[in-house]
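Tutorial, part two.
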Amino acid sequence: MNKIVVFVCVFLIIITSSVNPYIKKSIINSKKDVYMPFEVFYIFISFLSATLVSFMLFFYKWDYIYLILGIIMCFMTIFLFITKVKDNTYPISFYTKCILSSFLTIIPSFLFVFLITRKDVSYLDPIIKPLILILIFMLGVFVFGEEKQNTTRKWICLIGIVILVGIFQMDKTNLNVSPGK
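Running the prediction step on this input gives:
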């Protein structure tokens, strides 16, 4: 597989997996008078994500079972919207964030499955997970102003993770190539 494709997929997985928790947090913990209860939010996001996945699989595989599941999930999502979500007056930004969060939940999963079909998990996972943790930490401290985690101990752990990822990258080998017999 081309190194650029791997790099782009890993980059997208890291960015989407790191930003998504903060989008979800902004929907659930709004400082305004209107906020969405977390149980309604997660059920709505789950239904919306399942609908999106069903339609994506239909267009990828052209199997009508996915189309039928997508239509069923679409009706269930609309029913949930009418009964639980529509009654409350949420601003448009709530719905935008819900849809964005659904996409940001699905995209890393599909990209990771795409990557592990072409590379070994033991090659990818030690690179992706620490970088997601680093970016979540940095976003929390610098962008969202979370002061509880801004401690010297956490910064030392962050530097340790960066060093370990660097050492792993220096000694990496292509695990898909088996030695000749």
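Residues 173-181 have pLDDT under 50 and may be disordered. In part three we will examine how such features are distributed along the chain.
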